[in-house]
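User: Can you fold this complex?
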Amino acid sequence: MDVQEKKKQRYERIEEQIGGLLEKSDDVIARMATVIAILHHKMDGFFWTGFYILRGRKLVVGPYQGPVACQELEYGKGVCWASVLQEKTVVVENVHDFPGHIACDARSKSEIVVPLRNRDGDIIAVLDVDSSRYGNFDEIDATGLEKIVGMILP
Ligand code: SME
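Assistant: Here's the predicted assembly.
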């Protein structure tokens, strides 16, 4: 089995596990924290895994695992804001090539950001994953993480 197929299968197993665990609480923060813990420890190369929550014109850090991160992200700057403003998942193969990238930790090399929407379709937070490897994220991660983010709201 090739590496991509393995990654796909890992996302499928994780989705199942998360589905079971999320039955235990309707609290969004508890659900976010659970998803972060599973992703961070089960996926290869996830160096920083967390949510940034949209509060007006601020993105404020939520549940996360990994090194200490920026608590607030300046409006309009960086990958997380790009995802919010473009209203889509953003994959960055090399963060050094992304204009305005916010480096909370110099070891981060690639990144994926997936928006979380409420029932009206408005973005309320983003899932942000950084890797210490270049080009760690692809379409398989985008699809897998979008599915998982879609499970957060009870
Ligand atoms: N790199 C992000 C900031 C958050 S840290 O990666 C944890 C960005 O450019 O938005």
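The chain has one domain: 3-149. Residues 3-21 form the longest helix (19 residues).
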